[in-house]
Amino acid sequence: MPPMLEIKVLASGSSGNCYYLTDGYTPLLLDAGIPWKQIQRGLEFKTSELAGVLVSHEHGDHAKAVKDIIKAGIDVYSSLGTIEALRVSGHRIKPVKAREQFTVGTWTILPFELQHDAADPVGFLLANRGGGKLLYLTDTAYCRYRFRGLTHLMLECNYSLDILRANVDNGAMPIELKNRIVKTHFGLDNVKEFLKANDLSLVQEIHLIHLSAENSHAERFKSEIQALTGKPVYVAG
Questions:
Q1: N or C: less crowded end of the chain, CB within 10 Å?
Q2: Contact at 8 Å (CB) between 156 and 210?
């Protein structure tokens, strides 16, 4: 029987990122970049059921609710650099290291390094006992790693280079911002190259996340990734 994972988008994009994930046994949050009250509403106030929150890096659109999450008595898993940048402490803070596995309930989780303008950003590979294997990859210029046996992918698809260039040409975006985006975020071309380089034979779903409001096109991105992979593609928004 194929692994059944539930993914719920509470928020995605430059204004905030927060995703709920469960395998039916251990519910988690991936990032918490929206107000705690909004998270509570999104989870129908069942936040006490959360086994933990994985935070990729300290930027507000990924970590806004961390202090409230700690106050609520929920464990936060993040890199030491991210924890220091957020200036949080206490027994609910669980430092993790890139390429060192840890477990939360039924999940075995492997953090890995990313390339972003943050203190110590990481992505997460989550595997459960039922054979589900989810990759969470956001806010990075590239990913040096390859993965096998993935069943679910959550990949940032922030921009398309042609849209970025058009926005610079028409004066909607300064070239300095365009250059920062390219150096710190995963774009459509990155996603395509990453998918081509990885084993997708077991993949059931691809979720495109963290699309820029100004520099992306949801329907186009969805159709191009579906055409490339032949897999069901969902766009978070």
A1: N
A2: yes
